[in-house]
Specification:
CCZ1/INTU/HSP4_longin_1; Vacuolar fusion protein CCZ1 homolog; two-stranded antiparallel ribbon; single chain; 8 helices; alpha+beta; 5-stranded antiparallel β-sheet; Ccz1; Beta-Lactamase; CCZ1/INTU_longin_2
Length: 253
Amino acid sequence: MIYMRDTVNHVDLQELKKILYYYPDLADTDTKIKNVGLCEALIKFTETFNPSKACEALHTQKTRQLFYQAETDFWMAMTVNVPTQQRTRDGQVYIEYLADDVQDHVYKSILKTSYLMFRLFNGTFQRILSKSGNSEMLKEKLSAFYKKYLPILKLSQADLLDVYQGIHFLPLDKYAFLKVQCFVNLLEANFSHIKYTAFLYNDQLVWSGLEQDNMQVLYMYLTLSLIPSFLETEIQGGSVMPSTKVGLGSHYG
């Protein structure tokens, strides 16, 4: 769920208008409004104790709710069901909630990455809102992006690797690496519109002119979505048309 916070008391925004994106969309309107109201109330309440640090998580027996302030007045919230297993005690079967299997820092990292991935291809929420003058274009972009992005997430397999977002580098000898560097330099010299270049062999990075934070986000997109789709189609002997274009450049503020 992504929503825009109402920080000005005299502005009467309807609760439903605050919701920019909600998944699953099949949830009824009352549920959406109730969840947004609960999130906003919780964030405001925790601010009274520590205004400099926003609320990050809410633990209940059955769920874990994570919060991330993506931009000023823009919040993202994700609810994860705590896994369970049946146990027997004194001949009685009961459900045990495995709270230790849900680590806050892991899912908070996934939530943050989902924002960075959107920003890489679309720009910031505030910039889209400022350009359009209303929230409709932002809602459309959020819907178009996350309908494709969320299904590829494997939350059940989330672990510490999602926190550190490691990049696999391809070790090369000096001669091979210099050939790659010369190729990149020639490419950028002949095509002035290219601002940044990343050179990968399969899912291993050889060269990158991007800053590390941006490269980590792009690398995740390539290895989780684009490269697997090419490999699968190549094995089947067909052709693939990427559903998302990769644009490298400082196009967001």
